[in-house]
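Re: that chain you flagged

S.,

Sorry for the slow reply, it's been a week of failed gels. I finally had a moment to sit down with the sequence you sent. For the record, here it is as I used it:
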Amino acid sequence: MAEEGDVADFVDDMDGEYYDGDLSFLDEYDMLMKMTDTSSAQARKGKDIQGIPWDRLNITRESYRLTRLEQYQNYENVPSSGEAVDKECKQIEKGGNYYEFFHNTRLVKPTILHFQLRNLVWATSKHDVYLMSNYSVMHWSSLSSNLVEVLNFSGHIAPTEKHTGSLLEGFTQTQISTLAVRDNFLVAGGFQGELTCKRLDRPGVSFCTRTTYEDNSITNAVEIYNNLSGGIHFMASNNDCGVREYDMERFQLLNHFRFPWPVNHTSVSPDRKLITVVGDHLDGLLVDSQNGKTVASVVGHLDYSFASAWHPDGRTFATGNQDKTCRIWDMRNLSSSIAVLKGNMGAVRSIHYSSDGQFLVVAEPADFVHLYSTKSDYKKRQEIEFFGEISGVCLSPDDESLYIGVWDRTYASLLQYNKRHTYGYLDSFV
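Prediction finished late last night. Pasting the structure tokens below so you have them in one place:
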């Protein structure tokens, strides 16, 4: 991934070549008015899901969409990787209708700090969502419409428990690059290789550590998972080319694997025997989870990858790349991908399989989230479309709710979609 110097340059130039996410120029009037949410009933009556008043603007929604598609510049480490894909691959036709818009919450303000890292929204139930908002980890309850701060990194944070290897002095003003929340555990990764662990059912922070003191040590991704013996582990992927596995009972480092290039994302197979490893290289790796040795490589992407996910069946997995594609791989034949899923305008920054394996959620950096049906061999998709940078996308553990964090100076919000059922759609009056 880009080095930290590049990040600063990029942030300073966010209104320039690579960023076109600010919608404030569209609606100065609305900024003076009360920001309002959008319900499913209002959306069915024609209200824009983000509350953008297109009827008062000098541009139509359709015209602005065309402008965005034409002007949005996808960030590439390999020049013209997206153009090459555009020539080779066709977009899967739309037509799927798996999740239906339910609510847009303007009270929730998701944010991002690094333009390549977009895993900052996590749901622990269909009603409970954790996300980054500036320096704070926030909890949103869609049931009670309550927004509560869980952890604030702007000041000093120190562990309240004693564990071997924990930095008892803690951290000050930690810039959070990535987040993972599962069950009662939260792990936040920082720009200087920091890892902060918290149990959500206890006050305070359980564990703080710095993975490395190298200059380019940003924590790119964290995954929390159950190991085969029933304990909870987490895996951190870092820019220092390392992958580190910790247990979450004693917060001890169990494994440290090193690779020839910065690791942007890892995911552990359902049987816990293999790890997908992707990063600043065109190829992805499958490695043995016990010893870190490479078992196989997957070849086909044209740029660096930032996302990976396993299907619950353990036979197929997906990788997301800056060449604007998500590729699907089958363990029974890794010589080539079995499907190439092309985005509309940007890199694939975040991907998740549903827990039942029926859907694959693929998020671009901005404006588009795609849901593919695995039952139709990825040949059917639903396209969720809006305006703004995507801070994260996640499914609830029961697959009932889909949440999308939208980062924008004016229209920042949390989008909620609910799974469609054959008995029809019912509005909630809670």
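What I noticed first: The first helix runs from residue 4 to 12.

Talk soon,
D.
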